[in-house]
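Sequence in, structure out. Go.
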Amino acid sequence: MKHYHFSKSDTSIAKLIAITLMLLHHLFGFTDRILPENMYQSLYMFRGQPIEAVICASFKVCVAFFLFLSGYGTYLSLRKSKSISKMIANRIFRFLKYIWLDMILFVLIDFILGVTKVNLTSSWTIQYDFESIILSMLGFEKYNGEWWFVMPYIFLLIMTPLMFRFLQRKKADFFTDFLVVFGIALFSLYGIPKLMSYDMLIDFKGTVWGILLCNVVYLLPIYLFGMIFAKYQVFSYYHQILPKGILSYPVLLFVAAAGFYMRYKIGSSYDFFLVGPMIYACVMLIKKIPGVIWVSKKAGRYITFVWLIHSFYVFQFGQKFIYSFGNPILIFIVLTVVSFASAAAVYWLFTGLSKGVKKIRCFHNRTV
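Output:
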């Protein structure tokens, strides 16, 4: 039997699924962030709530999708890298560059339009001062609440060499590594809240660093488990035990549906455990649909920009326009088109500028 590997095209499909879940979650999962006059027309009310809000509540797992995939890909890259520290530094710089490019355009738009709140219904105000700009450039979410993930992710990247060495130790085995991840998850679920309840740490809990610590400990099991999946090729094992042919689809559909249902019921506490099977099931379900692989490859270069950009349209200056279409399906289509078009524009604008600067340098070097 041919050995199965979770390929780059599979990863691209998984990222496309993750960004789709994120768009839906932010559009319909936070009805309290939509101004009453902008509220969409729900397709169906379920127990007093829009059905879209109920369904999209579990789609917050999108963050875990991205983080798991990052851990998975980073581990595979580290195995081939000659310099771990250089590779990690390049990843951090490249990620921060995405932030800087988006800030140049979208924070400027916020300033010009007089946006004063992180989202229209929030009391969290925006300050256009030097300190806020510098902190945002370093990854703190001063201008967009949905950028909360940036600084914890940077810390995880900084910690990655230690995680890699742990996984590369002698006599490492999947069961022991799983227990370590499970222990960290339990500490995040029960230990951190208990620790933060002590008098000496109550004030620290609400600070930027206290929130950062909680977020890092919460995200660490997901990222580390992605690395573990890569090390032990767990997706290959899934592929071996999956029924072949048409019988595979009911199994995959059950795994995906059960994962989203459990995420809806138990929240984010066990994302590290749910997300691997969910990613595999979702990818296998749609990868043979004509055009999916092509779309995922073409969209791949823009997905990070879409993640950073779309919430400006949903929660800030674009909310009135996005929700003006009323129908949830149309709203989703419009946000997707606008977000990817904006991401492509940002990408090609700065790619063109970068190429122009390189040509000028080359010309200057020749004339010197």
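Check: The chain has a mean pLDDT of 89. The longest strand covers residues 45-46.
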